[in-house]
Amino acid sequence: MLVTMSKAFTREQDASDDDEEIALPPLPAGSRNYITPQGYARLRAELLNLIDDERPKVVEVVHWAASNGDRSENGDYLYGKKRLREIDRRIRFLTKRLEIAEVADPTVHAGSDQVFFGATVTYEESSGTQRTVTIVGIDEADSLQGQVSWISPIARALLKARVGDVVKLVTPAGPQEIEVMEVRYPRKATAGDGSPGSPPPRG
After folding, report:
1. Residue 165: phi, psi to the nearest 5?
2. Max CA separation in the chain (angstroms)
3. Of 121, 80, 124, 117, whose CA–CA distance to 101 is shortest?
4. Are residues 73 and 6 in contact, defined by beta-carbon separation less than 8 angstroms?
5. How many whole angstroms separate alpha carbon 167 and alpha carbon 89?
6. Which among 46, 48, 118, 184 has most CB atoms closer than 10 A?
7. What does the alpha-carbon distance between residue 136 and residue 102 come to, in Å, rounded to a whole number?
8. Residues near 141 by Cβ (< 8 Å), separated by ≥ 6?
9. Alpha-carbon span 36 to 142, nearest angstrom
């Protein structure tokens, strides 16, 4: 899930590029920044909203507050400037991530029992506990929604496995074997199909 950056970014001072690179989720050397169509659409929508809506509103507030006198004692001005720096940092972050993103549509694997990027996988631990995860891009993974990035340990263990396979998952408590129980993919949209699993159009 995408969250607002709390660490301010300033154009005038600081090692902005270095700080920003540290904030980027790391990619394995030589690999691509895979993302689902839905994830790409969400990041793009957030970027456009920041540029076209939220930033202009904050700029307007800052200009209004600046005209009210002593800026050092002006709460609206100080908060507005801080928020503006956060927005600018987020815009830079999203722009960089979208530039290197490679959209991978999981619907091309619909019907397959093998685990690829975009799969929703149900697996069973040795204790008998079953868990379900969806393998997505680094920039869109949300553990609260059962989403894991494709470079996470569980995704690495599951990728390329098939239903019925037993694979080894390395955990802090030691390696454990898990069995792939089910593999699902969203189905491709057809004309006039508004199904939940259909990827959004890209414009």
Report:
1. -75, 145
2. 70
3. 117
4. no
5. 41
6. 118
7. 12
8. 1, 147, 148, 149, 152
9. 13
**Which residue carries 């659409």 as its tokens?**
41
CB count within 10 Å of CB 30 equals: 5
CA distance 119 to 43: 20
Helices then strands, each counted (H, E), the chain = 5, 7
Asked if 92 contacts 51 with a C-beta cutoff of 8 angstroms, the reply is: no
CB 139: neighbour CB atoms within 10 A? 23
Per-residue model confidence as pLDDT tens for the chain (203 residues):
333 333 333 333 344 444 444 455 567 776 788 999 999 999 999 999 999 999 999 999 888 888 876 666 677 888 889 999 999 999 999 999 999 999 999 999 999 999 999 999 999 999 999 999 999 999 999 999 999 999 999 999 999 999 999 999 998 888 999 999 999 999 887 655 544 444 444 43
* CA 178 from centroid of its chain's CA atoms: 26
For residues 105 and 118, give the distance between their C-alpha atoms in angstroms, rounded to a whole number.
7
Which residue is it, tokens 């830079």?
92
User: Rounded to the nearest 5°, which phi and psi values hold at 145?
Assistant: -100, 10
Element (H, E) at 75: helix 75-100
Q: State the Cα–Cα distance between residues 97 and 33, nearest whole angstrom.
A: 8
- Neighbour-count burial of 14, counting CB atoms closer than 10 A to its CB (0-12 exposed, 13-18 middle, 19+ buried): middle
Place of tokens 């999981």: 106
